[in-house]
């Protein structure tokens, strides 16, 4: 039966009181025994200490007495030599010094001597005032008795002693002839006797220490030796009996030298008793804590078990374990639900699991299970179940191998139904394929639209260009210019839409080359200068001195961003100027910093918030004066970020705006100079720009007329065919210097025709081929070059672009008549579908 909490507390308290009471009683008994032993041995230890001290003192006292007797004997002989009956009366101080010097300087403790005659004359050595004062006998001292006194000289104790010099008379009488005195270094005297090694405090006193006798304290510590219960030994000094008293410098022992083992044993016994009691108490407390911890653990396990059960029920996870050595399988009710087995309580087997697997997954699932048991120790598998009703269920299984305490092994794991996840993944995969197909369709649509729109635009712009080259009256000339400008604006809008679509589809790639950025900026400004002059706006370029001539960047994308920013600046500036500033920042990541500054209308804070968004307009009102798609800045931002940089704007309404962007740009190298030798072509012998024989493959009749007119203006001889197959056939004649090849043509397209020409034998296979393309998607240029084309020109084709492309690929040469006439025999012939057309008349 469980004990209530209050009863357990009372029991623990009573146990603690009993434990400590026993401990205190044991300690008291041990301490009492120790005190009794101490009282019994303390007195014996003191007596032993005193006897030992007295024995050592007596031995050394004999040495002191002997030393003093020898020194007083020498002193007495010295005195009689100067005051005795046989002493000469005219002895001088020098004579005394000569006699006294061996005594003072010898290996003894005497530091000075003096002799005084009864008549009053005296001798001192060393003869110094200090020594004379030290050896002066006190006036009140009787002259017929020996005496002593203690003095301090230079930090050392000096024993001054004097003795009467007696002459024996008849019948035992004596007569005092004078006094002899000596200063003895008492410290040295004790050292010679070996007393410092005894560590004793000493004093010299009269016989039996009677009152009135002179006492000479020589204590090491300065304390009163006679008051410290000294031991004494007799000492004969100056023919008198003295007493040498001594106490240990550290004091008399209290018995510790004898008692400490008892106290040590007492302490050890006490500590052992206390330690055992405390250890018992600690073990009891630890046992109680373990009981409490086990109780808490049981509570926590019960709580966790309930939570785990709820979690398994909510997640529909089945738990199983398989005993590897015994081959038994145990799983819960949720496993029966997953495998559609009846909850009949039957012990499950390995066959219950493997028999439910889909036949197509059985071998793989069993192999993964065996690998987990024999190799990895971890089981992770996805497989399908074929249920009794022939439905398929997708299962995910994970498990781990554990070793039991008896050495056997089992694998424990879980299963859960992932059928919905698999279906969702299949749907997402299908949608991904649909999205990819839509992306491909979008790209194809953009390529088709590019071609279909640019092809007629090429005719419109080309014919307007040709029209502007004819004699027109002012009204006609103005209208033609308006139409040409409108057509080019429409082309610009088309380019913006196509560029944004390419950026959105991530189909724009960078071509980083060594670029003369200053020249590129000046080209952009030159391109915009005509519009700036019309608006009477100053257009300048400022290049910082630290900008290297060549930087590594994508010149085409940089030009595109500059054209957008400078074009906007010119468009929104009525008066003032537009400046393009270039700078270069060195460091770990060198960068090209560009600023386009204008004095235009400025931008409000509200407009700046959406300025770089697609289709955003600074002025989006219905009365706005400036057009545009609102894609230019969005394209610029995406291009700058594609190049690894950032773009920003600062603007004040009415004062102008500054657009800044920076892109990574390392210092580049000058590109190799162009070779003077012809790259390709059949004519490459002489220098000078001369007309060429050009084969034109173009299926659109309007574009045929435009190209024929452009070539005629440059003096070239053109032969026009309407398809790729005709171009291949005509090229084999070997009479042409160049082929202009449209890409999209019925029958054989331009790419296939170019490959066929490159596959021909002989020099004709090396004829330059310029692609005429209305396609504008990423990768088109690489496709043309891979097919063997030499260059390409994007539609709408202008006369200047076409002339520049021809100059790039064909060698300047002297025109010579072909070995056989060009089909049709005309300078400009059109052979489309077997129909020949003459060249258009020159303007009159």
Question: Would you kindly provide a brief summary of this structure?
Answer:
The chain is of the alpha+beta class and 844 residues long. Helix content is 44%, strand content 22%. The strands form 6 sheets. A 7-stranded mixed beta sheet has the order 26-25-24-22-23-27-28, with helices on both faces. Strands 2-1-5-4-3 form a 5-stranded antiparallel beta sheet.
List the helices and strands and how they pair.
Blueprint: H1 5-83, H2 93-105, E1 110-117, E2 122-125, H3 129-134, E3 147-153, E4 156-168, E5 174-185, H4 186-193, E6 200-205, E7 216-218, E8 231-237, E9 240-248, H5 256-315, E10 317-323, E11 328-331, H6 333-338, H7 350-354, H8 359-376, E12 378-386, E13 392-403, E14 409-417, H9 419-468, H10 474-504, E15 513-516, H11 517-534, E16 538-543, E17 550-553, H12 555-571, E18 577-585, E19 591-598, H13 605-609, H14 632-642, E20 646-652, E21 656-664, E22 693-697, H15 701-713, E23 717-721, H16 724-731, E24 738-742, H17 750-758, E25 769-773, H18 780-786, E26 791-794, H19 799-809, E27 828-832, E28 835-837
Parallel strand pairs: 16-18, 22-23, 22-24, 23-27, 24-25, 25-26
Antiparallel strand pairs: 1-2, 1-5, 3-4, 4-5, 6-7, 6-9, 8-9, 10-11, 10-14, 12-13, 13-14, 15-17, 18-19, 19-21, 20-21, 27-28
Helix pairs in contact: 1-2, 1-4, 1-5, 9-10, 9-15, 10-14, 11-12, 12-14, 16-17
């Amino acid at each position: 039966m469980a004990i209530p909490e209050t009863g357990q507390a009372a029991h623990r308290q009573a146990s603690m009181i009993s434990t400590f009471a026993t401990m205190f009683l044991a300690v008291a008994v041990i301490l009492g025994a120790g005190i009794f032993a101490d009282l019994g041995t303390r007195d014996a230890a003191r007596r032993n200490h005193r006897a030992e001290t007295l024995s050592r003192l007596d031995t050394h006292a004999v040495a002191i007495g002997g030393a003093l007797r020898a020194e007083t004997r020498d002193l007495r002989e010295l005195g009689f030599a100067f005051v005795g009956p046989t002493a000469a009366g005219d002895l001088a101080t020098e004579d005394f010094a000569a006699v006294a010097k061996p005594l003072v300087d010898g290996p003894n403790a005497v530091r000075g001597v003096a002799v005084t005659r009864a008549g009053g004359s005296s001798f001192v050595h060393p003869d110094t005032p200090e020594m004379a004062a030290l050896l002066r006998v006190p006036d009140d001292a009787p002259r017929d008795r020996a005496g002593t006194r203690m003095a301090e000289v230079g930090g050392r104790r000096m024993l001054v002693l004097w003795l009467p010099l007696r002459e024996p008379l008849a019948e035992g009488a004596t007569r005092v002839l004078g006094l002899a005195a000596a200063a003895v270094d008492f410290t040295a005297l004790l050292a010679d006797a070996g007393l410092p090694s005894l560590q004793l405090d000493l004093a010299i006193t009269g016989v039996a220490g009677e009152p009135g006798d002179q006492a000479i304290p020589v204590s090491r510590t300065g304390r009163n030796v006679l008051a410290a219960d000294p031991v004494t030994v007799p000492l004969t000094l100056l023919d008198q009996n003295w007493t040498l008293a001594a106490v240990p410098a550290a004091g008399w022992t209290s018995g510790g030298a004898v008692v400490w083992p008892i106290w040590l044993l007492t302490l050890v016994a006490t500590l052992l008793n206390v330690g055992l009691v405390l250890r018992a108490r600690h073990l009891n407390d630890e046992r109680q804590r373990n009981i409490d911890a086990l109780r808490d653990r049981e509570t926590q396990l019960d709580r966790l078990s309930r939570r785990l059960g709820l979690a398994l029920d909510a997640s529909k996870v089945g738990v199983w374990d398989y005993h590897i050595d015994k081959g038994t399988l145990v799983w819960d009710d949720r496993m029966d639900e997953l495998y559609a087995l009846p909850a009949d309580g039957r012990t499950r087997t390995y066959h219950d699991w493997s028999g439910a697997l889909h036949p197509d997954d059985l071998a793989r699932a069993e192999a993964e299970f065996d690998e987990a048991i024999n190799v990895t120790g971890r089981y992770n598998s996805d497989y399908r179940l074929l249920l009794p009703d022939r439905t398929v269920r997708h299962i995910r299984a994970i498990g781990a191998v554990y070793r039991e305490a008896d050495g056997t092994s089992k694998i424990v794991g879980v299963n859960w139904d992932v059928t919905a996840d698999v279906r969702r993944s299949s749907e997402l995969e299908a949608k991904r394929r649909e999205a990819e197909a839509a992306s491909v369709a979008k790209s194809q649509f953009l390529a088709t639209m590019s071609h279909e729109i640019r092809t007629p635009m090429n005719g419109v712009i080309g014919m307007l260009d040709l029209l502007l080259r004819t004699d027109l009256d002012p009204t006609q000339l103005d209208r033609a210019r308006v139409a040409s400008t409108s057509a080019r604006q429409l082309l610009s809008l088309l380019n913006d839409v196509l560029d944004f679509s390419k950026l959105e589809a991530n189909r724009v790639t960078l071509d980083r080359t060594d670029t003369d950025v200053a020249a590129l900026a000046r080209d952009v400004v030159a391109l915009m200068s005509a519009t700036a002059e019309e608006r009477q706006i100053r257009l300048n370029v400022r290049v910082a001195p630290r900008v290297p001539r060549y930087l590594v960047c994508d010149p085409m994308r940089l030009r595109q961003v500059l054209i957008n920013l400078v074009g906007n600046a010119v468009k929104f500036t009525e008066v003032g100027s537009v400046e393009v500033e270039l700078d270069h920042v060195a460091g770990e990541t060198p960068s090209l910093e560009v600023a386009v500054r204008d004095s235009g209308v400025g931008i409000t804070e509200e407009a700046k918030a959406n300025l770089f968004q697609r289709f955003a307009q600074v002025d989006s009102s219905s009365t706005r004066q400036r057009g545009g798609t609102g894609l230019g800045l969005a394209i610029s931002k995406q291009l700058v970020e594609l190049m690894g940089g950032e773009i920003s704007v600062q603007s004040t309404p009415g004062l102008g705006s500054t657009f800044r962007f920076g892109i990574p740009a390392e210092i580049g190298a000058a590109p190799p100079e162009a070779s003077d030798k012809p790259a390709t072509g059949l004519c490459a012998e002489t220098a000078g720009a001369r007309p060429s024989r050009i084969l034109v493959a173009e299926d659109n009749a309007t574009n045929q007329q435009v190209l024929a007119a452009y070539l005629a203006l440059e003096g070239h001889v053109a032969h026009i065919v309407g398809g790729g197959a005709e171009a291949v056939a005509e090229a084999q004649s070997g009479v042409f210097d160049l082929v202009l090849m449209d890409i999209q043509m019925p029958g054989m397209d331009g790419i296939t025709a170019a490959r066929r020409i490159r596959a021909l034998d002989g020099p004709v296979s090396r004829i330059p081929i310029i692609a005429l393309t209305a396609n504008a998607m990423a990768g088109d240029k690489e496709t043309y070059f891979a097919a063997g084309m030499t260059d390409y020109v994007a539609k709408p084709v202008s006369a200047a672009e076409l002339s520049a492309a021809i100059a790039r690929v064909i060698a300047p040469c002297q025109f010579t008549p072909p070995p056989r006439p060009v089909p049709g025999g005309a300078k400009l012939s059109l052979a489309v579908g077997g129909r020949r057309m003459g060249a258009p008349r020159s303007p009159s």
